[in-house]
């Protein structure tokens, strides 16, 4: 029988088909409704139909046409099931239009056998659905494929070769009770990583959420996400990179913090620095990094400052990291808090030589952590000395504000000695350090003298028995304590510091005399006035 091609179909502006209106409308409810409407072109020999959003494009339309012309004679396989199902939904090829054969019914029947599909067929089917996602999603086909794919991941054998498809694995996964979802091996199920890289970020989002709901190991999920974004960034446009980064960060944020690598998070921060990520995405990324700041290194923190910022490094970013660390309860662990304290001290030493770093930012770094974060303030003092040397033009008040971060009680004897003779440091700070050390040394001398007097009645390994009020005996053991040498060292050092205090007091007295003369003569000399330290008054 001769077929008349009286219908011209423009598919998405990509290709034009000449087909039989009668044959296609006998299967398609969409075309039948269109031809039942009155049209100016009804009298013409050839009608023209334009589709702007036909799922699958020309290839899908050609496949559907073959089905219609063969009266349903083409074979429906896992390879073409999704394509045919989506275009059948779009063209309304249901049983209301054609009782036999019915393309929607045939594709749904093919999907019922998805349990027998190979791994590669499942992945390819999901990839096809990406091209016409709305039609596939509305029919539930995507959810069905996703469910099957995640089921293979969570129950397939660990011995599957890396990057290969477990083709021999068909029905066993549905009844093998020995397979479990929990994992402790760091190389768990890596065979599927490479296969899923072909999927877009929307599909990955659905897959990961399904895996998380099925209690798949979060460490495995996070490793895949880092692998995925690394692969996608190698050959993607800026818009694709931005969407991928935002999806991955959002998914990582939903995982347990201990399963997410701090080093890898810094990697995302680095590769996405040029992208205009949403405020929410960047905030979540910084929050995840901040909560694990104790695992970071100095190199991680040395992030170049963005355009418009005068300093070399992005100090604001580090301050936000510290804030996130404290907000996440980081100070609850003294060990973690001290690790961050050491890290910030290293960072201070790195940024101190930056002549463009403003005092408020440097001060913010020095006081960002609580006092418990440092056992010693020597490293902070050294960074402050470098900063003061580089910024020699600072006023006395600005220097005082910077030095206020130093806890003199946590300075070593050597640092106190250096501070006392350092002309860059404000005199008031020097006096405070000397007084603090004087009190500390005095306390140590008193303690050692007490120990000496306490141990003098005891000889060798002898012991005494003291009777308590309640009748219990306390046995005091003691050995010979020889402390004279240590006492002499402490006394000598104390005397040296006392001399320095006396020198500073003389300077203060001289300054007060000069100020008194100026007040009497009412003479103003620019640049010669100087604030008198409070401790000298």
Compact description:
The protein is mainly α. It contains 23 helices and five strands.
Question: What topology does this entry show?
Answer:
Blueprint: E1 7-11, E2 15-19, H1 21-25, H2 29-36, E3 47-51, H3 57-69, H4 81-90, H5 103-112, H6 119-131, H7 133-139, H8 141-155, H9 193-196, H10 201-213, H11 218-232, H12 238-253, H13 262-271, H14 279-291, H15 298-301, H16 315-327, H17 334-351, H18 359-366, H19 378-390, H20 396-403, H21 413-420, H22 427-455, E4 463-467, E5 473-477, H23 484-521
Helix pairs in contact: 3-4, 4-5, 4-6, 6-8, 8-10, 10-12, 11-12, 12-14, 13-14, 14-16, 16-18, 17-19, 21-22, 22-23
Domain BTB: 5-71
GO biological process, one term: protein ubiquitination
Coiled coil: 487-514
Which shape, going by the Cα principal axes? Answer: elongated
Rg, alpha carbons: 39 Å
Class from helix and strand fractions: mainly alpha
The helix content is 40-55%
Strand count, sense and barrel status of the largest sheet are: 3 strands, mixed
Strand content: under 5%
Termini separation comes to 117 Å
Q: Strand order of the main beta sheet, please? A: 2-1-3
Beta strands, count: 5
- The helix tally amounts to 23
Protein name: BTB/POZ domain-containing protein At3g22104-like
Coiled coil: 487-514
InterPro entries: BTB/POZ_dom (IPR000210), NPH3/RPT2-like (IPR043454), NPH3_dom (IPR027356), SKP1/BTB/POZ_sf (IPR011333)
Family: Belongs to the NPH3 family.
Keywords:
single chain, 537 residues, mainly alpha, three-stranded mixed sheet, two-stranded antiparallel sheet, 23 helices, 5 strands, elongated, disordered C terminus
């Amino acid at each position: 029988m001769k077929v008349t091609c009286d219908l011209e179909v423009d598919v998405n502006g990509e290709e034009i088909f000449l087909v039989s209106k009668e044959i296609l409308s006998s299967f398609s409810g969409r075309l039948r409704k269109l031809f039942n409407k009155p049209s100016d072109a009804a009298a013409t020999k050839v009608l023209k139909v334009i589709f702007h959003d036909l799922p699958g494009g020309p290839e899908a339309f050609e496949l559907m046409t073959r089905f219609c012309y063969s009266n349903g004679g083409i074979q429906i396989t896992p390879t073409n099931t999704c394509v045919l199902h989506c275009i059948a939904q779009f063209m309304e090829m249901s049983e209301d239009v054609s009782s036999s054969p019915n393309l929607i019914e045939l594709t749904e029947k093919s999907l019922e056998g998805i349990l027998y599909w190979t791994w590669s067929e499942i992945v390819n089917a999901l990839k096809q659905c990406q091209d016409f996602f709305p039609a596939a999603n509305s029919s539930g086909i995507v959810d069905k494929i996703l469910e099957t794919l995640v089921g293979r991941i969570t129950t397939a054998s660990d011995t599957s070769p890396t990057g290969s498809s477990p083709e021999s694995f068909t029905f066993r996964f549905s009844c093998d009770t020995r397979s479990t979802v929990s994992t402790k091996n760091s190389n768990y199920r890596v065979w599927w990583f490479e296969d899923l890289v072909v999927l877009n970020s929307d599909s990955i989002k659905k897959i990961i959420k399904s895996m998380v709901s099925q209690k798949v190991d979060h460490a495995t999920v996070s490793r895949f996400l880092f692998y995925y974004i690394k692969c996608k960034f190698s050959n993607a446009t800026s818009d694709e990179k931005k969407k991928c980064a935002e999806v991955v960060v959002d998914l990582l944020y939903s995982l347990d913090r201990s399963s997410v690598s701090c080093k890898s998070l810094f990697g995302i921060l680095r590769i996405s620095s040029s992208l205009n990520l949403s405020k929410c995405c960047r905030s979540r990324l910084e929050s995840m990094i901040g909560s694990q700041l104790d695992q970071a290194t100095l190199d991680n923190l040395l992030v170049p400052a963005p355009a418009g910022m005068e300093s070399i490094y992005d100090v604001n970013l580090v301050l936000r990291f510290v804030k996130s660390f404290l907000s996440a309860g980081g100070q609850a662990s003294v060990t973690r808090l001290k690790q961050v304290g050491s890290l910030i001290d290293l960072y201070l030493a790195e940024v101190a030589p930056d002549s463009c770093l403003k005092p408020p930012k440097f001060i913010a770094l020095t006081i960002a952590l609580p006092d418990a974060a440092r056992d010693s303030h020597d490293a902070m003092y050294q960074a402050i000395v470098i900063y003061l040397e580089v910024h020699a033009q600072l006023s006395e008040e600005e220097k005082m504000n910077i030095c206020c971060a130093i806890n003199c009680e946590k300075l070593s004897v050597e640092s106190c000695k250096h501070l006392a003779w350092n002309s860059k440091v404000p005199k008031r700070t020097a006096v405070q350090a000397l007084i603090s050390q004087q009190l500390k040394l005095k306390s140590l001398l008193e303690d050692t003298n007490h120990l000496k007097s306490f141990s003098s009645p005891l000889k060798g390994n002898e012991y005494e028995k003291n009777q308590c009020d309640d009748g219990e005996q306390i046995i005091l053991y003691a050995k010979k304590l020889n402390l004279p040498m240590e006492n002499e060292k402490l006394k000598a050092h104390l005397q040296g510091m006392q001399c320095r205090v006396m020198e500073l007091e003389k300077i203060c007295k001289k300054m007060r005399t000069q100020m008194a003369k100026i007040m009497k003569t009412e003479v103003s000399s620019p640049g010669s006035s100087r604030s008198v330290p409070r401790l000298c008054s």
